[in-house]
Structures are given as C-alpha cells and as structure tokens.
C-alpha cells in the first residue's frame, strides 16, 4: 500500500483570504502576527507572491488554531446514514465523519479526527482542489457544490473508494468555512 504524500494544498492566496475574512481579521493584524507587512499579505492573497512553506503553514495554523467545536453539526455528521465527512477548508483537517465513512476507511469513528486528509488525496481530488482557484469557490460566500469522480486509492490509514464525490461549503458558528464531502452519483458511474 502506498504511503500518503506530503504536499501543499493549492490556492494558498484565495484560501488565506477566505479564512482571514471568515475570522474577521485585517491583513495588518495577520501581517503583524507573521512578522511581515500588510502589503506582503496582500500580495500573498492576490497570488502575486508565495511565501515559503513554513510561513504558509504558520499562517494557516494561526487562522485555524481556535476552530470552534460545533457539537450540533458534528453530531449530524457522526449520526448520518449517508457516507460523508467534514473537513476544515483551510487545511483539510478532519472534523467529523459518519459511521459508513468510518467503515469505508476501515477506521474507528474517532481515529482520523484532527488529522489532515490532504495527504490521502487522489489525483482527481488534487485536480478538483486546484480547479477551485479558477472558479468562484473562494470569492463566493455560498459557492455552488462541486461534483467530480475519483479513483480508488488504498493507504494504510484509509481507503478512498472510486465514485462520485460532492463538496459543499458550510460554516461553523464562529464563521470558519468547512467542507462537507459526501458520496454521490457521478456522471461517470
């Protein structure tokens, strides 16, 4: 079984902007926390400059470290009969998943909580994530759901099954954007 790859999420600038705005943080405040200038943060968000990997991770960690635990939303996901999971949009950290997703992943319903699922992304998931940059996903408060087909991939920690995957944006009560990922019938099935 292949090991998951460590790779950065695409679209750092738009992702950073969406998360910063959701947290009602000014560019200047983020710049101060990262020991840089407001103009630099502006260039990052515009995509004209990309900070080094360490700074990218620090910025996302700073904006996600106190993510609210929405017990009601978590309970809805954890008790759903549908095959779905909920991730933080900034870093794909797993916030909750349903019993059927746990069976699909061959894990307990708590084993992957708090871990980024991005290292397990298939080629199709990576492409769908990259395609968000050319869409209204990061600019729109309520973007249209995205449906795509993904291939099967088996890792030690989990199995990604082949089939349709639907992404929908939701928000936690503190304004943090999250993504509901559910099995769906795709045009390829």
From TrEMBL:
CDD domains on file: HTH_XRE
Gene3D superfamilies, sorted: lambda repressor-like DNA-binding domains (1.10.260.40)
HTH cro/C1-type domain boundaries: 16-52
A Pfam entry, by short name: HTH_31
Protein name per its UniProtKB record: Helix-turn-helix transcriptional regulator
SUPFAM superfamilies: lambda repressor-like DNA-binding domains
GO terms for MF: DNA binding
Coiled coil ranges: none
Domain of life of the native organism: Bacteria
UniProt-listed InterPro entries: Cro/C1-type_HTH (IPR001387), Lambda_DNA-bd_dom_sf (IPR010982)
